[in-house]
UniProtKB/TrEMBL annotation:
Name of the protein in question: Helix-turn-helix transcriptional regulator
Domain HTH cro/C1-type as annotated: residue spans: 14-68
Superkingdom of the organism of origin: Bacteria
Gene3D superfamilies (UniProt xref): 3.30.450.180, lambda repressor-like DNA-binding domains (1.10.260.40)
Length: 267
C-alpha cells in the first residue's frame, strides 16, 4: 500500500521531470496512453498510479533508468532495473563487445566512460595522445573531461583550447541540466573555472558540424593532430550500469592526422 507521503514524493518527482523535459500534461498523457486528467491527479497526489503506469510515464519522459528506479521506490514499488557491476560474469558479453569496439577503432583514440565522465576503459590510441599527462590525472578514477582541460593534462597542447574547452563544458552542462546530479554539476563548475574566456567568433578551422580538437604533438617534428569526436551509448539497455556507459571515439579530421596516429600507436 502506498502511503500519503510516498504518493506526495512521487507526485513531486514526476512534476519535476515533466517540467525539466518541457512537456505539457496533455503531451505526457498522449505519450503514456492515458488522460490529461489522470496525469493531473497523479501530480497533485489525488491519484495513486500503479507500477506499470509509473514505468510508462518515466519512459515517456525519457527518465534515465537509474532515476526510474527511484520513482518506483518513491511510489512504494520495487525497482524494475538491475544494477550489475561491470566485472560481473553476467556482463562478460558486454565487456567483450566493448573491448572489440575499442580495439577495432585503433589506431584512433577511443574511451568508455560512465555518466560522470569517469574512465571505464580506453584503447592504445587514447594512451598515446595522453602520454605526458600528469600521472595524478591518470590515477583511477580518471575523469576524462578533467584530463582534457586541466593545465597538467592536455590543455597546454590544445591549439584551439578556447573553442574546445567550451565545446566540452557546454556538452556536460546540457547533460547536467537534462539529467542532473550533484557530481556532474560540480564537474561543470570545475571545468568552467579552467576554461579560457568563451570566444566570440568561431575560428576559420571550424568544421561546421563539429568543433575539431587541434592537438599539438609532443614531438615538434610531428604534425598537429586534428580530431573530431562521436558519442555512442546503449539506447535500449535495461541494466543501469550498461545504460550509463558512453563510448567517445576520436576520428581524424584529415589524412595527415590519420597517418600520424597510425605512426604514433605503432611507435
Amino acid at each position: 500500500m502506498i502511503t500519503e507521503s510516498a504518493s506526495a514524493g512521487l507526485a513531486s518527482s514526476l512534476r519535476t521531470w515533466r517540467t525539466r523535459r518541457r512537456v505539457s500534461q496533455l503531451e505526457l498523457a498522449l505519450r503514456a496512453g492515458t488522460t490529461q486528467r489522470h496525469v493531473s491527479f497523479i501530480e497533485s497526489g489525488r491519484s495513486v498510479p500503479g507500477r506499470s503506469m509509473i514505468i510508462r510515464l518515466a519512459e515517456s519522459l525519457e527518465v534515465p533508468i537509474r532515476e526510474r528506479n527511484e520513482l518506483l521506490l518513491a511510489g512504494g514499488y520495487a525497482p524494475a532495473y538491475p544494477r550489475t557491476d561491470l566485472d560481473d560474469p553476467q556482463l562478460a558479453p558486454v565487456r567483450t563487445a566493448l573491448d572489440r569496439i575499442l580495439h577495432g577503432h585503433l589506431p584512433y583514440p577511443a574511451v568508455i566512460v560512465d555518466r560522470h565522465g569517469d574512465l571505464v576503459s580506453a584503447n592504445a590510441g587514447f594512451d598515446a595522445i595522453t602520454a605526458g599527462v600528469d600521472p595524478l590525472l591518470l590515477t583511477p578514477p580518471v575523469c576524462v573531461p578533467r584530463v582534457l582541460l586541466h593545465p597538467q593534462g592536455l590543455a597546454p597542447r590544445i591549439v584551439n583550447l578556447d573553442e574546445w574547452a567550451w565545446h566540452v563544458v557546454d556538452r556536460l552542462n546540457a547533460e547536467s541540466v537534462r539529467n542532473p546530479t550533484d557530481r556532474l554539476r560540480s564537474l561543470v563548475d570545475e571545468l568552467v573555472a579552467l576554461a579560457p574566456p568563451r570566444p566570440r567568433h568561431l575560428s576559420p578551422g571550424h568544421l561546421g558540424f563539429a568543433v575539431p580538437l587541434r592537438l599539438r604533438a609532443r614531438d615538434p617534428e610531428r604534425p598537429e593532430l586534428r580530431l573530431i569526436t562521436t558519442l555512442t551509448h546503449f539506447g535500449t539497455a535495461t541494466d543501469v550500469t550498461i545504460a550509463e556507459l558512453r563510448l567517445e571515439a576520436f576520428l581524424p579530421a584529415d589524412e595527415a592526422t590519420g597517418a600520424a596516429l597510425t605512426a604514433l600507436v605503432r611507435g
